[in-house]
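Q: What does the assembled structure look like for these inputs?
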Amino acid sequence: MQPAPQTLGRRERNKQEKLDRITAAARELFTQYGVDEVTTQQVAEKADVGSGTLFLYAKTKAELLLLVHNVKYAEALDVGIEAAAAEAEVLDAVMAIINPIITCNRVQIENGRTYLKEIVFGDPAEPHHAEALALTQRTEAAVVDVLNRDKKLAARGSGKLAGIISAIMFISMTSAANLGLNDAQVGDDIRAQVSVLLGG
Amino acid sequence: MQPAPQTLGRRERNKQEKLDRITAAARELFTQYGVDEVTTQQVAEKADVGSGTLFLYAKTKAELLLLVHNVKYAEALDVGIEAAAAEAEVLDAVMAIINPIITCNRVQIENGRTYLKEIVFGDPAEPHHAEALALTQRTEAAVVDVLNRDKKLAARGSGKLAGIISAIMFISMTSAANLGLNDAQVGDDIRAQVSVLLGG
DNA sequence: TTAAATAACTGAGTAGACTCATAATTGAGT
DNA sequence: ACTCAATTATGAGTCTACTCAGTTATTTAA
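A:
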């Protein structure tokens, strides 16, 4: 038989396939039951790999969640950036970026909070974590672009402002005080704060 | 023998004494080695109580850290509020409140980050957690007082502004990106952000 | 003084994330 | 085809936060 035409050898293909199975298994179980209700054993079993193998692909259970959630976050961010372009007002445009992220983050609220927790407190050296950080940086960059539409905001320092908006988002989406709110209410909470920040 | 003159019975006194021993043991071990390097067994042993008893006084290991750290935080806050009164400029006064908190939080950086993590992600129904929340509210209230010195800031909404300052503090003190900075540099980072926030 | 009721204590046991010694698989060299 | 070094997979075993059924201490009531 001829050697396969792929550039990747069997070893690389097997690895990719295993990662795919693990990602799929984790996504389904985490989404349905929530991270805390799922054991790594269950994910391994569903992915049909050994329990130790899991940890070759994600160093911790939380990293496994990053792996799964990054995909959804990236999609939400794309939607938001698109929507922001259609908004005339700066505040509206900023919220256009933020709103899909809120929704994505709160589909399963426990997972969303754990995701954000891991971004701040996890190990930035891990590959899935690095990807998550890149996403938050992309989010800030998108906010910077919007803020720069306004000369005065640009003069105040759009980079710093975007950083503050990230902090506002983080706290509003994770705070236990906001656990009882729905997506729209969290959005309103963030909007009110961003409004104060920008509208000074 | 006459009954003791205390209003508290033996049971209450025993409980208080045990709590004191546990607090002292946790403080010493956590301070010297860091939370993650100390097991709950070691704390129990040092406090001379059964390993299960520990969890009657703090529902989780993280709650135990809150118990210990709340005291230090409260002291730092008092110092800061005092110092703020002596500052003429609003920004300087805000930083006067914040600076002792930064120092207190970074004496043992791992513990400081874990403390903040627990405040956001822990169970607010737990008593030590409730106390920690009260402290952050007291901090915000102190910041509000300072902001209200300036009519324009008061008009913008000093409560919301103080909330944003809390968010800035949280992120700057916990972010892995700032792990390499010293206290002064973290202070500068926060000051720069607060300056942008207020100075708009 | 004693008995019953209640509160607090205890440490062996459990659960689940993660490790690591060993085994299986792969691909390059011959 | 056959080494063999390097990579990847495995699951039994470890570690430790936390639980709970049974015990002990204190208070109250008779």
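Residues 61-85 of chain B form the longest helix (25 residues).
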